[in-house]
Design a protein that fits this description.
- It is a single chain.
- The protein is globular and about 65 Å long.
- It is about 40% helix and about 15% strand.
- Bound molecules: 4'-deoxy-4'-aminopyridoxal-5'-phosphate.
């Protein structure tokens, strides 16, 4: 039943590891403090590893939320009249389109049914027949539908037709596989409060050489705070362990970032991704035991970072306070089509490394379902979770 501090299992912000919490909670450092400079420099280096960008990837660490990263992407890459294609898999793809239109881009959307990802062939057809396009934008995992697009074929297609590929990894980075250098992605961005495992407040992105060149080639300069060229010397200085200033960095969050990235890389990124995938599969086994159906229509498009589930017949959002009463906070529906009929559970990053958090979540959902009149067996759900977690990598 209810504990004093509810377990935060929404799709971001997430529960923090003790190390990240301690780093974020220490007295703030100044932006030219040698310790801060070291943490900033190391974070830049570690981002290249987590993004798998290779040495030519340029990380940027900005104070702001994920939406700032979306704005930065548009402001640096898109000029009025540019044609761009948005692969629309939910609420956050809608937001990307809205931002791109504010930058006067000519946006073409490819929008499959809710719960699906579009076929690559259809996208190829549009790119080759309705172009020339400048860039393709996709949401790696859309947090409103739980749909994961296949990033690799999208990156390769963008390269093949000679356009930029930009991915919103806010609900994915460090929780889903993304090989920026190998696949040839041009920009991959996220926010601190998701699978990276920090409090909210940092917009994090890695730009490839072609993305930086596209900024270079612009006729007009972007607003100062959004401009990669304004931030480049700052990030280069920090990487060389030299003091620098454009606008005050979120120093406490940079300290937390250094720790958070180190924890992700502790046993290698591959091990973290496997833990994440196993946790997600175990959660899906528990949902199956509870006869809950998911919004994503197939296994291939189902994200590992969160579950977007449909309420069973006869049950509605009244389920959420019953889950909360059991000490676990989950989120309501977000995508307009399934807003009233779905709920969302985050299980990403640090939380995916905590079987006890996953068990408490399954117990709370199962207990709330039973209280709501569903004929489910909470013990069967917990057993399904635990056998899923016991599967060797
Ligand atoms: N993109 C995705 C996929 C998201 O999940 C979110 C936030 N939930 C955002 C963008 C926007 O991020 P923020 O709320 O941090 O501005």
């Amino acid at each position: 039943m209810a504990t004093s501090t509810p377990l935060l299992m929404i799709p971001g912000p997430i529960e923090l590891s003790p190390g990240v919490l301690a780093a974020a909670a220490a007295p703030p450092l100044g932006y030219v403090s040698p310790r801060l400079i070291e943490a900033f420099g190391r974070s830049i280096e570690r981002m290249r590893e987590v993004w798998r960008s290779g040495p030519s990837g340029q990380p940027f660490i900005l104070a702001g939320s994920g939406t700032l990263a979306m704005e930065v992407a548009a402001a640096n890459l898109v000029e009025p009249g540019d044609k761009v294609l948005v692969v629309n898999t939910g609420y956050f793809s809608d937001r990307m389109t809205a931002i791109l239109r504010r930058h006067d881009a000519e946006v073409t959307e490819v929008t499959p049914r809710v719960g699906e990802a579009p076929a690559i062939e259809g996208i190829r057809e549009i790119l080759t027949q309705k172009g020339p396009f400048k860039a393709l934008f996709a949401t790696h995992v859309d947090t409103s539908t739980g749909v994961r697009v296949p990033p690799e074929p999208l990156c390769r297609l963008a390269r093949e037709v000679g356009i930029l590929s930009v991915f919103d990894g806010v609900c994915a980075t460090a929780g889903e596989r993304f090989d920026m250098a190998e696949w040839g992605a041009d920009l991959y961005f996220t926010a601190s409060q998701k699978a990276i495992g920090l409090p909210p407040g940092l917009a994090l992105m890695v730009a490839g050489e072609r993305a930086l060149a596209a900024r270079d080639a612009r006729k007009n300069v972007p607003p100062l705070y959004l401009d990669w060229e304004a931030w480049l010397p700052i990030h280069r200085a920090y990487e060389e362990r030299k003091p620098s200033y454009l606008a005050t960095p979120a120093t406490s969050l940079v300290m937390a970032l250094e720790t958070g990235l180190a924890e992700i890389l502790e046993n290698g990124l591959e091990a973290r991704l496997e833990t994440q995938a196993r946790a997600a599969a175990a959660m899906r086994a528990a949902w199956k035991a509870l006869r809950l159906r998911a919004v994503p229509k197939t296994k291939e498009v189902t994200a590992n970072t969160l579950s977007v589930l449909l309420f069973p017949d006869g049950i509605d959002a009244g389920l959420l306070p019953r889950i909360a009463a059991r000490g676990v906070t989950v989120a309501g529906g977000l995508h307009p089509t399934v807003k009233a009929t779905s709920f969302r559970i985050g299980h990403m990053g640090y939380t995916a490394t905590r079987p006890d958090y996953l068990r408490r979540t399954v117990e709370a959902v199962a207990g709330a379902l039973k209280e709501s009149g569903a004929r489910v067996d909470p013990e069967e759900a917990v057993a399904a979770l635990e056998s899923g977690l016991a599967v060797p990598a």
